# Entry
Amino acid sequence: MFPKPIENSSAGVRTGYQIILPIALFIWLLPLLAIFLTSIRPAIDINQGNIFGMPSDFLLIENYAAVFQQSKAGMYLWNSVRITIPTVILAVGLSCLTGYALSVYRFKWAVPLFFVFVAGNFVPFQILMVPVRDLSVNTGLYDTVKGLVLFHSAFQLGFCTLFMRNFIKALPYELIESARIDGVGEFKIFWYLVLPLVKPAIAALSVLIFTFIWNDFFWATVLIQGDHALPITAGVRALNGQFVSQWQLVSAASLLAAIPPVLMFFAMQKHFIAGLTLGATKG
# Structure
């Protein structure tokens, strides 16, 4: 059912794996490497057709500084932070509560309610585009950071609830029953017993939602019109029109937009892997 660990394979298979893995990694990273080389080229290289060769000059600091000096990239990055961080807190925090309720409490509407949370994940965003935009206009949330945060939180809550409910449900129910017998209140059970046990799952979910929201382009385009609330993913498109043929600056801005999710993943890598493998083995 599960793939055999590479260390348990024959010597020939291990050798082939060691040879193929760096090659596959290089091919996978090749587009990113090409974008990075473009981001440090002088404009004359691109105009002369030197796109895939080595740059004639390395303008790392100059090009990346020009992105901030000649555009609103700094504001776009700050907007992404203002949108992503509150969304992660709201979506993950609420999903911990809903996941706990749907996994611990036994009530008549638990299964239908859980189905409602899950079913929302299967609705294509394109179908919701017009009604969501109309709703945001009617409620005064259109073209605001607050509106994007609220809609992102609502859209992600279904997936987050499914994620947290499954992890909390995997905990031994006897722990919760024992705490109740000892007279511990429900909130204290949730806060002091359940949450510490699912911290790896919360960390893994936070990394996933951070990546989803930071990289969002669709809703940023639908619900935001002005530069004052535009995140960096949609802002790069505006930079493309502003810089016209200065692809070295567009490439630099694109890499700047990709850096925070990568840093987030590596900073939380240990917790992310622990969260994904939580409950995979039995002690």
